[in-house]
Amino acid sequence: MRVIAGKYKGRKLETVPDNSVRPATDKVKGAIFNVLQSRVNWTSAKVLDLYAGSGSVGIEALSRGAKNCIFVEKSRNAHAFLKSNIESIGAGTESNVVYGDAEAFVESTRTKFTVVFADPPYALEALKNIPNKIFEKDIVAEDGYLIIEHPARYDFARNGLWEVVVQKVYGNTCVSFFQHTKSVQ
Questions:
Q1: What is the pLDDT of residues 109-154, one digit of tens each?
Q2: Residue of 54, 124, 119 lying closest to 89 (CA atoms)
Q3: What's the CA gap between 140 and 138, in Å, rounded?
Q4: How many CB atoms lie within 10 A of CB 87?
Q5: Where are the domains of the chain?
Q6: 56-74: per-residue pLDDT in tens?
Q7: What does CATH list as the number for 26-183?
């Protein structure tokens, strides 16, 4: 797995050797950043990478110029790989790695993020409520995005705070881009 574009382009990233972490494929990662390319001013972007795993999506955002990124991961093994990846590319000053539960982090943070990435385990019971929790906590900036990688044909429980503005499907994987309802034009 490698960084696709930007200042860390081509740098190799390591991940957990077992199947406990499902890193975003280059195809999915490329699609995410193609959608965001003209929508996000990366130089001022604050990024949150929930269920970060190896950190490949957050690192890609940093590579493309994001101001900073907070990575949240609760697997000790994945957390070690994540820290090693950030260290190996030299992104320590623009990164904060949090060992802990993504849901607990969302509940406790007061920061507003330009982009929030969430790539939870597909079997996660709380998956259906992730958009509601994140928009209820109001951690996505007014013109920001929540991006969730999830199983295709999956419906989220709606609450009126958000709209899906873009969806990309790749086989059994879907990437949904959410924004505040008032931001959708």
A1: 999 999 999 998 877 777 888 999 999 999 999 999 999 999 888 8
A2: 54
A3: 6
A4: 12
A5: 26-183
A6: 999 999 999 999 999 999 9
A7: 3.40.50.150
